[in-house]
Amino acid sequence: MPDETKTGCCCSGDERNDGSEPLKRLGWHEYFMSVAQLISRRATCTRGHIGAVIVRDHNILSTGYNGAPSGLPHCNDSNCHIYRSTHPDGTVEENCVNTIHAEINAIAQAAKHGISIKDSDIYITASPCIHCLKVLINVGIKTIYYDKPYKIEHIDELLRLSGIRLVQVTMCNQKD
Ligand SMILES: [Zn+2]
Ligand SMILES: [Zn+2]
Questions:
Q1: From first to last of its 176 residues, what are the pLDDT tens digits of the chain?
Q2: Which ligand is in closest contact with the Cα of 103?
Q3: What pLDDT was estimated at residue 115?
Q4: Quick check: 31 and 23 in contact, CB under 8 A?
Q5: I need a surface site. Which of 9, 10, 48, 57 has the fewest CB within 10 A?
């Protein structure tokens, strides 16, 4: 399979299942983002459902979704506990105190099983918050691929200073 480095809609439609609808082969970015979207359906925080997949050399190393720590009550059973914080630009943000974000859970899963994630990439269904971005920088992630933007203005400076890449992946079949 040729190396797929460009982003955007990257599937090819040269096969057909019933002679009418093209059966599209997923490009690598769509492949991993589709996995991240599927994983997000395991999320338990009612504030939002996010999935993350850590990848190197087209292999999945680790996955995560947002939810409570193992063995603790999940938000969909108990309720979210929201706290507010104020960003230096004055905007007020709300987060759930119960929840570990998807990308941190993917990193935790790799650590638990002794899997090095240095020089890997991550696919996340939403761009990371500033706290997760700091951790992604320190574990050696090279490129962050995301689907939906989330407060990107808050991470602009950190992206510029760190050199970590942030790339949006546009899915072919997205309706919105
Ligand atoms: Zn929650
Ligand atoms: Zn986060």
A1: 333 334 555 555 555 556 667 778 999 999 999 999 999 999 999 889 999 999 999 999 999 999 999 999 999 888 999 999 998 889 998 999 999 999 999 999 999 999 999 999 999 999 999 999 999 999 999 999 999 999 999 999 999 999 999 999 987 655 44
A2: 2
A3: 97
A4: no
A5: 57
Ligand at minimal distance from the CA of 76 is: 1
CA–centroid distance, residue 44 to ligand 1 (Å): 7
Question: How far does the centroid of ligand 1 lie from the alpha carbon of residue 128, in Å?
Answer: 17
Burial of 163 (0-12, 13-18, 19+ CB in 10 A): exposed
Answer yes or no: are the C-beta atoms of 107 and 124 closer than 8 Å. no
* DSSP helix, strand, coil percent of the chain (3-state; round to 5): 25, 30, 45
Cα-to-centroid distance, 49 and ligand 1 (Å): 10
Out of 21, 103, 153, 157, pick the active-site residue: 103
Measured over the CA atoms of residue 69, residue 117, residue 159 and residue 8, the dihedral's sign is negative
- Tell me the pTM: 0.86
Rounded distance between C-alpha atoms, residue 52 and residue 118, angstroms: 16
Q: Which ligand is nearest to the CA of 129?
A: 2
Q: How far is the CA of 54 from the centre of ligand 2 (A)?
A: 15
Give yes or no: 153 in active site.
Answer: no
DSSP SS3 for 46: coil
